[in-house]
């Protein structure tokens, strides 16, 4: 198969256009940036704690000190949660954009987040106190539900799945599922619990959540990296991919599973935060070119960084109140979306 | 008989059929009105209802009916009309079957303006109530202008799809801003705003009816007088210009009417989407695309839908109340999806 890959002109263009050096810089620099952002985010907050204390709280934990407890029980899981969630949304977005060749694909815009959030409302209402291990499964199922409806409606239409139609279907499905969640919330009086969480907040993240979600997320991201070569081929179009010996159906299936797991896991922690999966892959593609073997890992790093910084900003803007990250990211995401929608112009 | 006579006979027959349809919808509204008056946490039997209406009820029945239920029902009738006509105008002007003040983000702009006001002046005493529709109109108008400017592209003008996409995005941005605002509110105010945003007919109070009524009384007749203009818009822009229509001016007037109606209704009822989408479509299927019939029919259907949704919301999960906006979204979103799946572009 590798011979035929070499022969493809399109693919050569992709490889030629990709910038492995910049990608390596992003991976290394991003990791350092991540560590720095985590340190920053852990030490600032309602009570400022200096770096030395943070260091000793992590590596020489002393349960009798309040500062150590704050760091270990509240801030650290929160920051790590934010990082994981950012990586999830960004990788899910990049896979969706590559697989569907839709520049406007994002788990928030296409109804996955609303679906997961709806299933979580159901969980809160009917099975209060359900362990997180099971909640996350509901969340996967919800993401699949949302995506299923959106793609179902999109593909029923005569002109097929155009990006614009998918986004509109996504908006309608989100409105529908959002209305249903709200109805459930009002009836069971779980509105306040749900409202903040829906708006997006990692403040409630606990070690228990991280333990349950990390294996899923790590497996899904590894899966995404394994698929990334095939995704690059798919992003050139189905015909090209088939011509190069790819089993497109199978790749699309596994790709969808990866996306659902990532979006579901992220929503189960942070709520329906949109636009991370839209912004980050575009930015990454702009920086490293269109080879998904670089896009996927770089998106993961940059996504983490974005959400950690957004969470940090959310805490600092109006202390002691927290601004929901979902809203903050939407304030960046909306202009970006408008820019893409304008640029897309004719094909949309 | 000459050909002309045939045509006029056909038109008369159609006219009679349409009038009959409109009367039928009126009758349905009256029936729903009666059902809605009796439905709620405390049920009123039809006999009790009639007795109370003629001033022979107990004090408790009087309060329930005249102070709580009637203003609410009247508001849902008015809001339903306003949203439906607003939607019809938007669909007519943009020639886009999926246009609706909710989807285009106009409702959210009005909501943001109202919410800014509530968060700075928390108590809704009598004076601000009359002020709210004006405020909402300003918010809705500003948003409409923003969307129009963002969707405009030199050389191509406004494409219907880009208009919708821009509307969806702007609505998302505004609701993000609203979430940021809500969290700064006190818990009591928060609960109030949350329910209002979900589209509850919260103006269970005659002063809201009075605040809304002038807008409806002025704007609906103007809209009706523009029915012919809207018909010409249906032909497309070039023929419309050929027929001597000052396109830009007429479009601006019509958009202002649509925005005013949407803003005024949002200020009393919160974000109710999809009525402006569904009502004109149903009306078009019943009476055709002529706006002389379409506008009144859509208005009545809008009323009927909203009263029904409000009644269902009050009845379905007793003792909790589900805001009418949620009920409408549960019905409206699938309808939107259906239209989307059928659409060709």
From TrEMBL, chain A:
It comes from the Bacteria. GO terms for cellular component: plasma membrane. It is a multi-pass membrane protein. The keyword Methyltransferase does not apply. One of its GO terms (biological process) is siderophore-iron import into cell. It is found in: Cell membrane. Belongs to the binding-protein-dependent transport system permease family. FecCD subfamily. This is Ferrichrome ABC transporter permease.
